[in-house]
C-alpha cells in the first residue's frame, strides 16, 4: 500500500496536540505551581494602614488555630470597585466563591464604623472563649478575631431608680480635670478653667458643674481615701527644718478653737520652713488650711518623677495668675492682694497640677507625649515662705467632697442675682444661627448647677445652696430672646435651650440635663420650692414626649432640630452624643413610666448595633 506522506504527518501532529493537551490538563499544578499565582495579601487592607491590627503571624500560620497556610488559600484577583458611579477603589475578587472583598479602611469611613484585631487578653476575646466553652466547644487558645463595632460609645444601664441624693447618671466615670480642654484647676477658686471656646481660659459653668458632680459620684462609689496627716499642730506634730533667721511656733487660735502654726521666713528658697523626706507616692492630693500675710508668702511642694528623676517645684502664690511655667517651676495663683490675711482651705491634686504644667510647657507636643503617670510621682517636700499661718497639712489618695464643695461655693459666689443665671463669658457660634454674645445663659448649665446645689443642700443642710438653686429656676421662665433659656416649639411646647439661639435650636441632650436639675430640686427642696421646680419639670417632660421622635433618623439621632428651625440638613449626633441620648432616656425611664421613653431608648440602643428602621 502506498502511504500518503502528508496524511501521516497530519495524524502525527494531531496526536502530539492531543497528548500535550491531556498532559497540561492533568499536570497544571506541576507546570504552573501555586506559588507563582498572586495571592491576596491581607496586610494591604490592615485597618488604618498598620500591621498591628491585622497580625500576619496569625494569618500565615502553620494551619493550626487561626488561618491556614498559604498553600491552601484561594487565589484572589485584583479588581476595581466603582463606588456610586463616582470613584473607584482597589478590591479583591474570589471567583470560585462568587465573593468580592472590600477594604475595611474604606468601609470604616463609608459606614462610620470601627474595628480592630482582638487582643488575646481583651474582655471581648475572653468572653468569646467562655461562650465557646459553655456551648461545648474546646476553648483553649483564643483564635484571632476581627472586632467589628458599629459604635464604640458605651451604654450605661441604670442599676436602680434615679435618686437626686445619689449618683448623677454615670458621672463617676468622668475625669473632668484631665481633659485636654481644661487648662488647669484654678488655685483661687478650686474649679476647672476651660479652653473649649477661648484659649486663654475662662470659667465655664457647665464644665464646673460636671467637675462637681463627678467628684460627688466618685465619693459614693470609690473606697474611703487613705489619708496621711503630716501636721495638725495638736496631736500630730512633725519635725520641720527651720533655717537660721526663720521662725515657727504653734499658737492657740480662738476662732478655730485649736492650735495652728505661725511662721516667718525670708523671701528666698533657702530660708523656707520645710518638711523634708516625705517620700509619699500615690497619696498626691494635698490639703492644707492656709493664711498668707504678705505678697512674698507662698507654699511650695517639691515632686519627683522617680522614673525620669525629673523634679518639679509647684508654687502656690498670692497673685492674679492662672498658671505659669518657668523651667521646672510651676506657678498657680491664689488670687491677688484681696486674698491676703484670710484663711482658706486649699485642696490640690498634685498629679493634675504637674500634668497641666507640662502641657503648658510643651503645648506643641501631643497630649500623650505630655502625660505623666500618677504612679511615677512622689512628694519629696512641702515648704512655706514669707509670713503666715497654716494647719491641717495632709496627703491623701483623694478628697472628692472638698472638690465638690469648692464647685458648690463657686456657684454661690458667681451667680447673677438679677437673672438667677450663671453667665458664659465667651462668644459662641453655631452654624446658621446668630452668634451668642458673652453673658448668654445655658439651660444645661442651669440644670447642672441646680443638680450640684441640690446635693450640696441635702448633704450639708446649708440653706445658702438651697437659695442659689431656687434662684437658678428664674431663667427657665424667661424667653431666650429676653435673656433666659425658654423657647417654644410650634408656640405650644416649652423647651429649655442649651444654646439660646435665634431661631431656637432645640438641642436634645442639654434639654434633658436641664430637666434633671429640676427633678433634683423637686425631690430635695422643701415643698413650696419643690412645687415650682416640679411644675417646670412636668412642662418639660410633656414637651419631650411630644417632640422626642423628631430626633429619630431611623439609624441614629439628630443632635438638634436645626433641620426644622433653619430648613437645612439634619445635624446628626455623633455616636458619643447618641449614646448620651440613650443613657438619658434610660435614666428618665426609671422615674417616668410612659412607654415612649423606654421604647425609644431601646430602639435607639439598637441603632448602635447596626439596626435600622424598616423600609416601606
Automatic annotation (TrEMBL):
<dbReference type="GO" id="GO:0047464">
    <property type="term" value="F:heparosan-N-sulfate-glucuronate 5-epimerase activity"/>
</dbReference>
<keyword id="KW-0472">Membrane</keyword>
<feature type="domain" description="D-glucuronyl C5-epimerase C-terminal">
    <location>
        <begin position="415"/>
        <end position="605"/>
    </location>
</feature>
<dbReference type="GO" id="GO:0005794">
    <property type="term" value="C:Golgi apparatus"/>
</dbReference>
<comment type="pathway">
    <text>Glycan metabolism; heparan sulfate biosynthesis.</text>
</comment>
<keyword id="KW-0413">Isomerase</keyword>
<keyword id="KW-1133">Transmembrane helix</keyword>
<dbReference type="InterPro" id="IPR010598">
    <property type="entry name" value="C5-epim_C"/>
</dbReference>
<dbReference type="Pfam" id="PF21174">
    <property type="entry name" value="Glce_b_sandwich"/>
</dbReference>
<comment type="pathway">
    <text>Glycan metabolism; heparin biosynthesis.</text>
</comment>
<dbReference type="InterPro" id="IPR039721">
    <property type="entry name" value="C5-epimerase"/>
</dbReference>
<comment type="similarity">
    <text>Belongs to the D-glucuronyl C5-epimerase family.</text>
</comment>
<keyword id="KW-0735">Signal-anchor</keyword>
<dbReference type="InterPro" id="IPR059154">
    <property type="entry name" value="Glce_b_sandwich"/>
</dbReference>
<dbReference type="GO" id="GO:0015012">
    <property type="term" value="P:heparan sulfate proteoglycan biosynthetic process"/>
</dbReference>
<dbReference type="Pfam" id="PF06662">
    <property type="entry name" value="C5-epim_C"/>
</dbReference>
<protein>
    <recommendedName>
        <fullName>heparosan-N-sulfate-glucuronate 5-epimerase</fullName>
        <ecNumber>5.1.3.17</ecNumber>
    </recommendedName>
</protein>
<keyword id="KW-0812">Transmembrane</keyword>
<feature type="domain" description="D-glucuronyl C5-epimerase beta-sandwich">
    <location>
        <begin position="257"/>
        <end position="386"/>
    </location>
</feature>
